[in-house]
Amino acid sequence: EVQLVQSGAEVKKPGESLKISCKGSGYSFPNSWIGWVRQMPGKGLEWMGSIYPDDSDTRYSPSFQGQVTISADKSISTAYLQWSSLKASDTAMYYCARPGIGCNSISCYFLHWGQGTLVTVAS
Amino acid sequence: QSALTQPASVSGSPGQSITISCTGTSSDVGGYNSVSWYQQHPGKAPKLMIYDVSNRPSGVSNRFSGSKSGNTASLTISGLQAEDEADYYCRSYTTSSTVVFGGGTKLTVL
After folding, report:
1. Mind listing the pLDDT tens digit for each residue in A87-117?
2. What is residue A17's predicted lDDT score, i.e. its pLDDT?
């Protein structure tokens, strides 16, 4: 069974750094794109970027390029999303997601989703 | 890149059919068959309902169907049920090798 398990909720202050994680199991982690999706309170889904863990090929939405860093450690089947200096506007739910088995392109739909990580940034 | 355009809300009575549109450009929806649709209930993670324009994942009711014409994709739900009340999002691949979501549509079952 494919599973994506995300790290727990975080409460941070503006200016602090943060790295959240998404651990995959039940499939070949290195050989599948995995994406990150933001959902601000009461708002819609926004694709932030995706990474191919095997070679760390990473694509970012222009809206998030330079604002976050997406990485992966294929040895422990874990993808990461990190911020170097959080802002109050980063308060949101963050989901990781990946395609169905056998669909190995960045264009592929998101079949499997993590449970979400709520990040709250407040002074 | 701009979000794909969806109506903010649609509504229908139980048993009726509704259609949600998703309008993009030739650089996204019109250029690829990589259009997918997601259902999200409050407090839950999104769920894939349609992929590659018109394919249903295993376990998704055949009351859900998808189509595309030009730069506009559509999700149709037939035989509306109370449990269909949720937010729906479309998603497309783009010529920039990126992904874009629609703004979302709130479906109300009257």
Report:
1. 999 999 999 999 988 888 889 999 999 999 9
2. 98
CA–CA distance from A56 to each of A29, A31, A34, A79, B97 (Å)?
Answer: 12, 10, 11, 10, 15
* Strands (DSSP E) found in A1-123: 3-6, 10-12, 18-25, 34-39, 45-52, 57-60, 69-73, 78-83, 92-98, 112-113, 117-121
Residues of A with CB under 8 A from a CB of B: 35, 37, 44-47, 50, 59-63, 95, 97, 100, 106-111, 113-116
DSSP state of A114: -
Pairing state between β B105-109 and B9-12: parallel
Shortest alpha-carbon distance between residue B1 and chain A (Å): 7
Q: B36-68, pLDDT tens digit by residue?
A: 999 999 999 999 999 999 999 999 999 999 999
3-state secondary structure chain B: CCCEECCCEEEECCCCCEEEEEECCCCCHHHCCCEEEEEECCCCCCEEEEECCCECCCCCCCCEEEEEECCEEEEEECCCCHHHCEEEEEEEECCCCCEEEECCEEEEEC
Comparing C-alpha atoms, which of B103, B37, B31, B102 is closest to residue B70?
A: B31
Strand pairing partners for A56?
none
Q: Is pLDDT of B74 > 80?
A: yes
